[in-house]
Amino acid sequence: MEKFYTEHKGKVIETDDKFKLVMAITLDSRSENKRGIIRCVVNREGDLNVKGYTDRSELHLLSGESLENFKIGERLNIKNEKEILDNLIGDDGDFIGLEDPDIWIDRETSLMHVYFTIPIKYKDKSKKTKIHLGHAVGKDLDSLEMTEPVLLNNSVNSAKEVSIAPINSKGCRYNLIESRDRQPEATYSIVKFAIAKDMGKSWEYGNTVFHPKEHSISWIGGHASPAPLLSKKFIDVGEGKLLGFINGREANQKMSDGVIKYGMFSVGLFIYDYENGKIDWVSPEPFIQDSEATTITFASQFVETSTEEGILYAHVDDSFVRAYSITVSGIKSFLKKFSI
After folding, report:
1. Cβ-proximal residues to 30 (8 Å cutoff; 6+ apart), any chain
2. pLDDT band at 76 (very low <50, low <70, confident <90, very high)
3. Are the C-beta atoms of residues 15 and 320 closer than 8 Å to each other?
4. In whole angstroms, what is the distance from residue 173 CA to residue 150 CA?
């Protein structure tokens, strides 16, 4: 696969004896991206390549003096966390820890909003895992308070992995989320938009904007998840539209013994019409696939370092975080391959 990016050597996060597996980095832009949050795996049960494995996680603070080297700090302290979670978990729930954080700064109020996955399994195996999109708000990373989730898992929809869209002409945001669709042959990860009139209060589920089953794109044939959107200042793809990264996984494979094996997860590009809540285009090929990945390259954060270049952070095999240099010229060369 021709490369339109530069893969950095080594790992971005210094792990230790306590946490050997880390993923899902998000950074606070107001700290010049020197502080942030990281998901740390406390315990892993099962095989990463096979459906049914479980990671138990914690969110921890992150700090570093450069964009290529960070250290794990204390566990993220969120006021009111226990009260909110106890109500969601109930008596029979098995909460496996907060996951996949995203930091968003409200420039009008200067408040920090943090979104994260709240996954709840059940001792009764006939009950399906519930996945809520949680929320906390505060003036900074040290003063966060948890609120009710902005999106609750209901009978049809679940929510995780948010990508924040700009305000549209209707005065709201059509933010992107990962959700699920259970079909007889498989459960797909799909992309939907969620209508946010207030970033700190309840959102509404919108339409499905990308379903792997409805497209003949093999690299994203089973699972799709939204990733960072690029600013118009960095690259402009038209009025009311943004270019962004999208995570995609090949379709699951059912083995002769009934085991469901996962395919490769890679990072692609897509064009999002945030005015109308539509995805206009998804790259026919991946944009990034890590050289060491055996099953997962998953993007979570993009930092613009200049008008022409930035750093994308992705986690590899849900184990470590890598940095990649992304240039505007590289993206344009990739898009040119598909006459975009």
Report:
1. 105, 112, 140
2. very high
3. yes
4. 13
